[in-house]
Amino acid sequence: MVTAVVTFLAVALASLRILRTSSSKKMKPLPPGSFGLPLVGQTLSLLRALHANAGEAWLTRWVAAYGPVTRLSFFGCPTAMLAGASGNKFIFSSAALTPKATASMSRMVGRRTIRDVSGDEHRRVRAMMAQFLRPDACRRHVAAMDAEVRRHLDGGQWHGKATVAVMPAMKDLTFDVMCTALFRLGRDGKSEAVRRELSTEFQQLVKGISVIPMDLPFTSFRKCLAASRRGRRAVAGIIQERRVKLETGQSSAADDVVTHMIAEGLPDEEIIDNVMFLMIAAHDTTAALLTFLIRYLDTNREAYDKVVHEQEEIARCKEPDEPLSWEDLSKMRYTWAAALETLRLVPPVFSILRKATADIEFGGYHIPKGWQVIQPMSTTQWDAAIFPEPGRFVPERFEDTSATPPFCFIPFGGGPRVCPGNEFARVETLVTMHYIVTRFKWKLAPGCDGSYARFPMPYPSQGLLIDIEPR
Ligand code: HEM
């Protein structure tokens, strides 16, 4: 009898434990939302909204309907979308989320970039790039950037022109700044030819990043793939030339990022992938920032006058041909606040994209392994509770950046993957704005309304046409 009672109690206790364990392990529900139509999901609807510059409104409606953690289907992938500061914090800190490149991006740039590696490998490649992007390195880039910016503005694209298409001009400028400062491409005949070849191929291949990767005859994607192959060959040529120089003692690892990667023993294929990635990351984003800053200053005269005043004060203390110094840049506080406000309103990178490498839980929901996780920047940067009157251009918001709540303003990302080029972008933006503001006056050209679309990088209609005159 006693044995029977003990056995009964033991079985009852064990069942209770199993029940308790299984209920505590009970899976949380999937986030609310909808996967939409099979395969298509919300892809076309969101892309259409982005192309019509209504992406923010689309997201606002979605979040209002389903909440801050939702599910949807994007490019055929089940996707969790996180909105809000806690989502931002989570995405930048979770070890179970890794960066995800779109299929088109991987085909254009390569599969072994800094974005595709993690852990020690990631830290190693990042450290190699940081040698040339840290504030002390950027300080050394000021003179080269100054010369390159003047070359562009005093040359045929601006000087003597009545109308300028800003975005194409800024892409050319930032491409050259990057070639000079990061890759140390010279201006002799051979280097000039390599520069122009790279520029042509990159203009073509970046278009391939935002299209559906269908490699069929006569498609724009196939043309972009061909440009990518030619671009890779040109980069391979640079590596070969730099290796000979390094081995014959004509250069050192400190000279430029390519020589540094060779000296560190990174395989050539990885150097090519990383150079391809850097070339895109370094020039398109900053070109977008400069273009939209010029656009916002045109329509906000008070901010424009303050920027002009700040830059003229600096110019007044210099000889006519004296280049800008690091100390001059530290005086450009209002101009940088205007640039930050531009990044809030039109972040060049629309959304952070990650992939879940394990099942995760966030905000009371289950996000299964393999899902992609996106976090559009506008969900905090356009939130009226964080940035009152979010549609207004108010650089004063960023005169004291410590007043911005954490994880709400994230144009450069955050956490271990935060953009390592943010200081480079700051210096380049300030040098460029100094010379534009002190050399020219501008206004939108008749017929140019300043509207823009996203592909997903923001691109103004007509490239943002402005009429300019010398100051
Ligand atoms: C206004 C200009 C720029 C903006 C808005 C910007 C934005 C971003 C963002 C949001 C990320 C993080 C993406 C993520 O977490 O998934 C990123 C990463 C990165 N950016 Fe930038 N960027 C800019 C300029 C630059 C420049 C000038 C360079 C190089 C010279 C650069 C190099 C990189 C690299 C290498 C990464 C990858 C970092 C990693 O995965 O560890 N960026 N950028």
Automatic annotation (TrEMBL):
Record keywords, A-Z: Heme, Iron, Metal-binding, Monooxygenase, Oxidoreductase, Signal
Binding site for heme: 419
GO MF terms held by the record: heme binding; iron ion binding; monooxygenase activity; oxidoreductase activity, acting on paired donors, with incorporation or reduction of molecular oxygen
The protein's required cofactors: heme
Any one of the GO BP annotations: sterol metabolic process
Record Pfam families: p450
Signal peptide (residue range): 1-24
Gene3D superfamilies membership: Cytochrome P450
InterPro entries: Cyt_P450, Cyt_P450_CS, Cyt_P450_E_grp-I, Cyt_P450_sf
Cross-referenced PANTHER family: CYTOCHROME P450 26 (PTHR24286), CYTOCHROME P450 FAMILY 718 (PTHR24286:SF364)
Sequence similarity: Belongs to the cytochrome P450 family.
Protein's name in the database: Cytochrome P450
